[in-house]
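Hey L., structure's done. Input below.
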Amino acid sequence: MNFFRSQTMGYYKLIIPRESAWNVMNELAELDCIHFVDYDPTLPMINRPFANYIKRCDDLLVKLSLIEHEMKKYQKKITYCKDVNFLIKNFKQLIKERSKASHTYLDEIENDIDKKHQQLIEQSTNMENLHERRNKLIEHKSVLLKGEALLGQSFFQPANYVAEGYVNLQGKELDDIKILQGSVKFNYLVGVINKEDQIRFKRIIFRITKGNAWMNTMDIESDQIVDTKNDDAKIIKSVFVVVYPGGGGSNVITNKLNKICESFQVAKYTFPENNMVFQEKLRQIETELVETRNVHILIYILQLKPTLMISKEFIKTPIVHKLEELKLFLVKEKYLYTQLNYLRVQGSVLYGSIWLPQGADIKVDQALREVQTNYEGLPTGQLQISPPEGTRPPPTYFETNEITWGFQEIVNTYGMPRYKEINPGLFTVMTFPFLFGVMFADIGHGFCLLLLGIYLCVYNKEIKESDSLMKHALIVRHMVLMMGFWAFYNGWIYNDFMSVPINLFGSCYEPGTVDDPIHKDEQVWVQKDESCVYPFGIDPVWMCVPNELTFMNSYKMKLAVIIGVIHMTFGIILKGINAIYFKNWIDFIFEFIPQIIFFTCTFGWMDFLIIYKWFVNWTGKTDQAPSVITLMINMILAPAKTVDPPLWGDGQSEASTQTAMLLIALFCIPIILLPKPLILNSQNKKHQAQGPNGLADEKKELYQKINEDSEGTQENSEIHTEQSGGGGHHEEFGDIFVHQVIETIEFVLGSISNTASYLRLWALSLAHGQLAEVFFQMCLNGGYSYAINFQLLIGYTIFSMATFGVLMMMDVMECFLHALRLHWVEFQNKFFKADGYAFEKCSYAKVMQDNAVPKEE
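Output:
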């Protein structure tokens, strides 16, 4: 069962001659079953033998990304790879058909990409210069046209200078300024500024000149000027004209305005002094614009367009663009040399260590033989079984499919299971959707979620090939399907269809009468037959009685506690199964046994009281029904006191049973606390007496068991004994004891807090039901007294939007997160150590698939 426990791993030594290192690694990376062990994790990658090859691949990928960017800029279509296995086969065939050494193909690609990159840089620079020139011409043309509209023809006439000094232009219009032109000489400043800087520019001009300037602006058409440094994005600019008094060009106001323009990086232009020069300048700009446009077209057609075409024939396949093929080939090459860097180079030989799943050594041996067959004259590598080095356990590897992947990721996000530890993902597949369904229980809403899951599963291929947003949910489609099913199922258990009960099987109650004249107007329900039981779920009559909320709260709360205790008890049992599997008898005897007894005698007893109370018929004597909460409190505060009212008997036997349960639970606490640290301390002293050599030899012998024993039980028994003991053989007794004290307190107090935490199953279900009822009552319930009218239409629209936005979106996420917490904190902490590390298989397919999908821009 590869999903119940991780696959059995074998430790091997790999020996590869350097001249065939590329070919051997190329074959091994296609197997998807090898985990390379880094010979020195502290050594930086830059100091390793093949770091130069990795840097070359990185540089080429950067250059290809520039080419890709330019192709997208000029709207060239790029077909991305959808089947990386097809490319891997073609890459292999291409390399095999060459007469040169396999690793030299990178040199040919490098030369071709470098050449095209250099050409593209030169041509892109020329295009940017043309764009800049065109922008300047458009700005100058706009200055002439907009300036003429702002200033008018009178400013073409030379002004008679009379006096130079302060003239307050604040609040004056342009016509008033023209009247003053005969007595005061005016200067002007014309330029172009970004639209977003326009208001700040005006404000600063006003403050600097103290209102002694007139300024106006006009926007340039937004589709004319482009930003060459931002993918030719459109820039909105404005022409501004500043008119201020003063003669000459070196007065105080002029100097200040020039400094302001420099700070805003404003382009300033000169305005012609007469109409003849104005018209001549306008014709000259128009001519230059036409020439610039023609040159731009010629450069694109004759130079840039051929450069963007990848001329080198790489793989003849029309389904993938050649640029994408080159990129994925470089990704593959970089990954190959990264894996080679995990091997130690000694002379002309590479030595490395690998982990292989059980049975994968046959595939590796076959791949090594294929290297010698396919490439004559090249020596192949050797695979040798070896005992593991160091004390690190093997990696954890689970085989997952489309259904189990999402649930395993939930577990892995919290932590990777230890090697051969029970995998919580197997049980998460069943319990996670169920707990979600308990909180989201509703026939209508659950059915909508179920339909979504069915749609995603049935139309999987069609959605994957489309541009729909639903394609992002395909990866969890089976999880959505199961969550919707359990929400739909538990909705029938609660008999809740968007806050409306369904009388599917006929209620066991009917309206009755009250003999009391005071309460004769109240609606009462009488059971038709004492033996009548509603076949499935809750009788719909309970949704119509005054104490409906009280009844449903009590039912859901007790059901949540029962589910929580069962879930956590199962987690403790899994801890015992782990201890037996690893032959860790210390944990089994002094942790599992007292913990399961403690939990059963406390919260298991509480579940028994709840279920027993349900089986008793309290009709006509509800005032005699004891409170389970009161019974549990008195069990602690008054253990020997006779139970009154009793759940069974005269109360004395119940009190005796509770006292016995309490004493057994209290006795279990020191059993959890004391024996384990004492035994571990004794074992530590024994190992210290043997010395480091004796300990190393003992570990070596235990590690050799991994390849002899298909389960790896004995080897992992030692490792897990060290890790679960709160420290290795070098920890003092005080550290071990403190660790065990923390573990004991965490279990005892955690049993209380974790059980209370499962009440979220009740709270979320209550919140969901009450929200559905509020939406129904406020939006639709009033419309039933009318025919189909505008009021009902508006109410239904609001009801649909509120249901979708709040319940089908926000509440789904809320229930998902709470179910996640129940698994991570309440369930997994009972047995799950989560300190393993993943089996990182060497795989071309995985790394190429990760890079085949274009990144969102």
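Confidence is low (pLDDT under 50) at residues 158-172, 311-316, 702-729. The first helix runs from residue 21 to 28.

-- N.
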